Each structure stands twice: as structure tokens, then as C-alpha cells.
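Task: sequence in, structure out. Protein: N-formylglutamate amidohydrolase.
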Amino acid sequence: MTPYRCIEGASDVLILCDHASNAVPADIDLGINPALLVKHIAIDIGAGPLAEALAGRLEAPAILAAVSRLVIDFNREPDALGLIVRASDGHAIPGNEDADRDERIARFFAPYHAQIARTVRTRRPALIVAIHSFTPELESGIDEPRPWEAGILYNRDARAANVAVRLLREAGIVTGDNEPYSGRILNATMNRHAEAGGTPYLGIEIRNDLIADDAGVARWCEILAKLVSDVRNHLAQERPAAT
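Result:
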């Protein structure tokens, strides 16, 4: 199976969704109850539909993962322990105990990131937007409940993030600044495809109960379409004029 799917668009904004799918190839046995595949450990709930809706609203190209993060996590470095998880939020993933790491990287991870790299190289986007979702509370109880409606993640490049946090808070949305986790720790895809080349980006996290149905996706698509457009326009105004 192809580890990603692409949406065409003419905009200079590129949309990515690392955890859009809960699909597991037929030849991979994770050794888990299939009911776990609808949980946040397998997929960013609502993120795929939201990314697709946002791409349509902005007429933007998008690349969405087509494999569950329980098979391989596209938003990790290739040498990260969490690339192929053996347990997630208190659930064991026994089928990953003896997984062939190199084979999964070659089969899924490398083609996905190669496609993003090609798109960035050929399209030269003015802004890259990564869509994720987070659970209100971990099942394992190892963390406090998460009160934010949205979070903006970033590492060193905060050009777009600072504007987005301000705009969301001005709109009355409870917004985490590098919450519910820090982009200085968890920002692999954006580090590779945005920061490394100097492209501004937004790492957007939406609480998954807010986008778990069509109405929630539609509402947040409108919110994010305005946000992304405003941030992109702000960056364009800030960019030094060509001489």
C-alpha cells in the first residue's frame, strides 16, 4: 500500500497530516484488539478529515499519511525510540516487539518524507501547515487533563506560530503556546521539511473531541482557513521586498 495520498491545489500553502490514517497493511500483525485502531494511539482523530477540508477550502496541496502511526510514526526521527512503538498510552503493541525497523522505514517512512521533500522543492510553499489532534486526557492518567481547544507547536522558528497564537486567543479560543507538548521536543516533520529550509510553518493541534464529527470539522475548517490565510498574509507583509 502507498504510505501517503496527495491532494492537488494551486495555493502556495502546503498542508501535511502525519497521523491521518489508522490503516494497517494486511501483512502486518500488531497483535492488538482491533478496537484500539479507533483510538488516538492509532490515529489523530479528526485530523485527516480536517486537513482534507482545509485543503479544499484553501485550494491547497496536501499530503496525508495513509498508514497508522502504530505501524510507524511519521512525525519522529528515524532513530527515535518512538518510531515503532511497543506500547502507547498503557496499551501494549506486541506485534512491534520484533518489527524489522529498516524494512518499515524503507517501505513507509522514507517514501512519505521523500514525497514531502519533492513537493517542498518543486512548489516552494510560503507556509507549511501540519494538522494534528490531541486527546483531552490520556487513558493512562500520567498527565493532567488538557484544557486547551487548540495548540500551536514550534521549535526555533516561531515566525508563524507567534502570530497564530495571538490571533486564536484574540478570537476567544483557549490556545496552548507549545502545548499540550512542546515543539522543541516533538517537531520532527516540521524540523525536517520547514525549519531545515527556512520555510515558515504552523504546527496545529486541535483537541480531538472538537473535531470528532462532521460539524466539528466544518467549524474548525472555517477557523483554520481564516487563521492560515491571515498568518500567510502577515508573513508576506513582513518579508523584505526584493531589490
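The longest strand covers residues 127-134.
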